[in-house]
Amino acid sequence: MTNSKNKIIQVSLLIPLLCFLVSCGSQPRQAQVAHPTYKVGQPYQVSGEWYYPREDYSYDETGIASWYGQGFHGERTANGEIFNKDELTAAHPTLPMPSLARVTNLDNGRSIVVRINDRGPFDKGRLIDLSERGAQLLGFHGQGTAKVRVQVLADESKAIADAMRHYGSQTPVQVASAQPFAQQNAGFEQAGNLNEGPEGQVEPAPIAGVSSQQLEPPSNTVEAEPKPVRTTPEIHRQLEATQPVPEVVQLPVTGHNRIYVQAGAFTQHENATKLQQHLASVGHATVSETAVNGVKFYRVRVGPIANVGQADGMLKRVSKAGIAKARIIID
Predict the structure, then answer these.
(1) Core vs surface per residue 202-217: b (16+ CB within 10 A) or e
(2) Statement: residue 201 has pLDDT above 50
(3) Distance, C-alpha 80 to centroid of its chain
(4) Which of 2, 80, 198, 302 gives the lowest tally of CB atoms within 10 Å of its CB?
(5) How confident is the model at residue 256, as a pLDDT?
(6) Across-strand partners of 94?
């Protein structure tokens, strides 16, 4: 009899606990509310790496793309939008938010337009982080990474920026006073500026005594300051809500599209040769000549490299050799 009473007491105590647990579990996750703003932001540092956000309407780079999805679905992005893994959005370390960019898979020619609305990826070997839907449309969802080309859509991005500056931003637009593009991507040297840590603390970084070596600019670099595109409040509302059409365009893929780790690019051949010799113990480094906007550059590269995994390993070795601004490129 005593045992039966004890069992009844135990069950009666468990019932309200189970009800509490069920009620807690049934509560829907509180939805995030979007407060999108136009944001460029100050230079910041993540895991020892410096990033210099800026308006760059001539941006045209190749590298390795990755993707993110369910783990971030419904969370707030870096400019206050809500991440939706099924929309065509992307994270980029430095491009303005929001802006539009065309991303082309260099292996299969598939190309889509995405809305840059988040910061990342913060892996040195990655150029852009696409939403899960973007990875699906580009055909690399299963493999996780792809060789891509990223091109900013200048006119559309300027229009969005101007509209949100004049009609939409509830807070002042932050535009980084970053160093010129060539200095940001220096060979041996690192540039210092503000450090925005993961907890949001901002600390000064050393600036004095920093030297730089010029890297080749993108082939379509525009030196003149971009002129703002004037819009109306109604156009602003349309632009603010702009989501790229989920349309895949098939583009011709030219070139070999081989993977390299680029350690630096120099206007002086002697400097390129010195870096090549410095990397002799790391891998097969070569010096190649190219002309960009009439300026001759000597590029120091390690490769070609067979696959992304091996490229990641080589990038780490080159970085450990003191080349902090080395990056993976496709050529």
Answers:
(1) eeeeeeeeeebbbbbb
(2) no
(3) 17
(4) 2
(5) 85
(6) none
CA distances from 72 to 91, 115, 132, 212 (A): 12, 16, 10, 37
User: 192 pLDDT exceeds 60?
Assistant: no
Tell me the two tokens of residue 39. 């944001």
The first and second tokens of residue 108, run together, are 């299969």
- CA 161 to chain CA mean position, Å: 18
> Which amino acid appears at position 240 of this protein?
E
CB distance 231 to 160 below 8 Å: no
11-20, 118-127, 193-202, 262-271: the lowest-pLDDT one:
193-202
Mean local confidence (pLDDT), 304-323: 94
Q: Residues 259-269: what's their mean pLDDT? A: 94
CA distance 97 to 220: 21
Instruction: Please write the tens of the pLDDT for every residue from 73-93.
Output: 988 999 888 899 999 999 999
Buried b (16+ CB within 10 A) or exposed e, 127-142: bbbbbbbbbbbbebbe
Q: Is the peptide bond before 304 cis (omega within 30 degrees of 0)?
A: yes
Q: How far, CA to CA in Å, does 174 sit from each of 39, 54, 170, 236? A: 6, 10, 12, 19
For residues 19-45, average pLDDT: 61
By residue count, the chain amounts to 331
The torsion region of residue 86 among left (phi > 0), alpha (psi -120 to 50) and beta comes to alpha
Interatomic CA distance for residues 8 and 17, integer angstroms: 15
Sign of the C-alpha dihedral computed for residues 125, 130, 133 and 137 taken in this order = negative
Of 179, 60, 225, 221, the residue nearest 128 (C-alpha): 60
Q: How far, in Å, are 88, 327, 329 from residue 159 at the CA level? A: 19, 31, 30
The tokens describing 285, both together, are: 């480094």
What is the DSSP annotation of 235-251?
HHHHHHT-------EE-
pTM of the model: 0.71
| pLDDT, average across residues 110-121 | 94
